[in-house]
């Protein structure tokens, strides 16, 4: 099939690229070229994306990684792990991590997340307007929460955050490698410390589990960091941007903060306008909506486009915090559904409840289109959020 689009699509933070919009109207499976120049399939329909996210004919590994099409948009690129043992490896990792996100584990974290959020907003309010809500709230909160989850001592959080930012700078591979190396070295050091002096945290509990090596615990900790840090920064930033550029929706939330649960789901749905996608490789030949996909080919499951499929979400470009939005696939679906979703939701609820109640007159200090977006970071999102109140 002929290549019909080059990734990435050029688009503003809140608008879908015209070409992507056109492709969606033509079908659900499209032949595209990635930023690295390799061919791939881009799947844009909600029903298809949701089904394929839970289909074990697609995976994250490739039998010959050196020949695999590359996305060029993620930190580790799309190929992750060993083709022969993928299902068993993934099951083991998921089983090791899942208990740390159970309702029982989340309950005591909620007041800690709320206290951290309150503290960051106190600092913002003390600073006074104009202020950069991105730098003062969206960036620090997720890292502080992950530090609490992993048991990173408070005094190390700033160094930890700086290495994470370096590692995520995919535009500068040397800097990114340096950040990663520092993080892994620190992770090993932390595991060694927790073996001697355990605390009430994920690393200590993994140390207590049978048959888990120090290297594996350090690796799992870093996986949580990468899975839960930038993703949450982006959702907080995009949520603020979406709410403040839709003043009627912002006023509705300020008027009734009880709408926050729906607002969070709508932010999660609306924040990604599509064009990227969760990468998978076909483990065997398969057919997607009548299109033949060959074993080994790269398939991008565009969850942002799925979240804007009018068949699933009527009038998808309209932000509506009262719509039923929870069928969004922002956390994925099925086999690899985001383990951290309950924690991310706690963070987003804490932030948007507090912003709405403490800063009811909040507004952007610049036009929405003038908000700078991050071109280099792994997951995009705003680079700044200049606000007044
Ligand atoms: C709003 C913020 C977040 C978003 C949008 C998000 C999104 C996602 C998505 C789309 C996946 C599935 C990837 C795939 O199918 O290949 C995923 C998986 C995962 N996420 Fe999240 N995530 C967020 C926050 C977090 C947090 C806070 C944590 C933990 C601290 C976390 C931990 C994980 C883990 C461990 C996986 C892997 C699950 C597996 O492979 O079985 N995420 N996330």
Automatic annotation (TrEMBL):
Keywords: Heme, Iron, Metal-binding, Monooxygenase, Oxidoreductase
Gene3D superfamilies found in the cross-reference section: Cytochrome P450
Alphabetized GO MF terms: heme binding; iron ion binding; monooxygenase activity; oxidoreductase activity, acting on paired donors, with incorporation or reduction of molecular oxygen
Transmembrane residue ranges: none
Source organism superkingdom: Bacteria
CDD domains registered for this protein in UniProt: Cyp158A-like
Named cofactor requirement(s): heme
SUPFAM superfamilies for this protein: Cytochrome P450
Similarity comment: family membership: Belongs to the cytochrome P450 family.
Protein name per the record: Putative cytochrome P450
Phylogenetic placement of the source organism: Bacteria, Bacillati, Actinomycetota, Actinomycetes, Kitasatosporales
């Amino acid at each position: 099939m002929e290549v019909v689009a080059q990734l990435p699509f050029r688009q503003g933070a809140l608008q879908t690229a015209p070409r992507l919009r056109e492709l969606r109207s033509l079908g659900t499976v499209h032949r595209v070229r990635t930023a690295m120049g390799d061919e791939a399939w881009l799947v844009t329909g909600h029903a298809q994306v949701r089904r394929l996210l839970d289909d074990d004919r697609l995976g994250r590994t490739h039998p010959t990684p050196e020949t695999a099409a590359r996305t060029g948009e993620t930190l580790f690129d799309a190929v992750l792990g060993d083709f022969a043992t993928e299902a068993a490896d993934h099951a083991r990792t998921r089983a090791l991590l899942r208990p740390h996100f159970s309702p029982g584990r989340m309950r005591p974290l909620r007041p800690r997340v709320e206290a951290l959020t309150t503290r960051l907003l106190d600092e913002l309010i003390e600073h006074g307007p104009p202020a950069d809500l991105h730098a003062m709230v969206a960036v620090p909160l997720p890292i502080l929460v992950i530090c609490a989850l992993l048991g990173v001592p408070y005094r190390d959080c700033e160094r930890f955050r700086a290495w994470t930012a370096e590692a995520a700078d995919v535009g500068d591979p040397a800097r990114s490698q340096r950040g990663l190396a520092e993080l892994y070295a620190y992770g090993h050091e932390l595991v060694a410390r927790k073996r001697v002096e355990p605390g009430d945290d994920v690393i200590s509990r993994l140390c207590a589990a049978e048959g888990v090596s120090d290297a594996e615990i350090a690796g799992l900790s870093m996986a949580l960091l990468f899975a839960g840090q930038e993703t949450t920064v982006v959702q907080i930033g995009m949520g603020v941007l979406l709410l403040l550029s839709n003043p009627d929706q912002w006023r509705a939330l300020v008027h009734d903060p009880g709408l926050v649960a729906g607002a969070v789901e709508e932010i999660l749905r609306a924040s990604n306008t599509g064009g990227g996608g969760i990468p998978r490789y076909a483990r065997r030949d398969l057919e997607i909506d009548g299109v033949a996909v060959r074993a080994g080919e790269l398939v991008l499951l565009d969850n942002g486009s799925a979240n804007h499929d009018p068949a699933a979400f009527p009038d998808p470009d309209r932000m509506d915090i009262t719509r039923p939005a929870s069928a969004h696939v922002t956390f994925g679906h099925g086999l690899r559904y985001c383990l951290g979703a309950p924690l991310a939701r706690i963070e987003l609820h804490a932030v948007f409840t507090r912003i709405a109640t403490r800063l009811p007159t909040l507004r952007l200090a610049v036009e929405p289109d003038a908000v700078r977006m991050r071109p280099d970071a792994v997951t995009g999102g705003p680079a700044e959020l200049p606000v007044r109140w």
